[in-house]
Amino acid sequence: MSKNKSAQPLEVVEPIGLRVLVRKDEPKRETKGGIALPDAAEIPTITGRIVAISAAVEHDEDVPLRQYDKILFHPKNAIPVDLEHDNQLFVVPVEDVVAVFRRPVAND
């Protein structure tokens, strides 16, 4: 059995300090009303999913972030990670995470 080398990841990105690794959501290409937008008029996307968190964030009880959380973040200080052709990975400082999307807990 030969393994396909292109299918194996080349590197693992582990954020250091109070940072998280985020996969940015795809940019919107259509309005809520269904109107298609040209590429030049895309609505900027600043939401994404956390794919990795640093050890400092994981052990900090004051930072309520977990892997796979959907977040809203300020893109100014986000650092792109150039490992993928679509360049959707960013290292984001925790202070630039402005919201976490959570499902409401049902009260029984």
CATH superfamily: GroES chaperonin
CATH fold assignment: 10 Kd Chaperonin, Protein Cpn10, Chain O
Tell me about the biggest sheet?
Answer: 6 strands, antiparallel
Mean pLDDT: 81
Percent of residues in helices: under 10%
Number of domains: 1
Shape field: globular
Pick out the low-confidence regions: none
Strand numbers in spatial order across the main sheet: 4-5-1-2-3-6
The name of the CATH architecture is Roll
Strand content: 25-35%
Number of separate strands: 6
What report would you give on this structure?
The chain has one domain (14-100): GroES chaperonin (10 Kd Chaperonin, Protein Cpn10, Chain O, Roll), CATH 2.30.33. The protein contains one helix and six strands. It has one helix at residues 55-58, and strands spanning 19-24, 47-53, 70-73, 79-80, 89-93, 97-101. Strand 4 (79-80) and strand 5 (89-93) form a beta hairpin. The longest helix has 4 residues, at 55-58. The model has no long low-confidence stretch (mean pLDDT 81).
Short structural summary:
The chain is mainly beta. The chain has one helix and six strands.
Give the tags.
6-stranded antiparallel β-sheet; single chain; 4% helix; mainly beta; 108 residues; 10 Kd Chaperonin, Protein Cpn10, Chain O; 6 strands
Secondary structure blueprint with pairings:
Blueprint: E1 19-24, E2 47-53, H1 55-58, E3 70-73, E4 79-80, E5 89-93, E6 97-101
Antiparallel strand pairs: 1-2, 1-5, 2-3, 3-6, 4-5
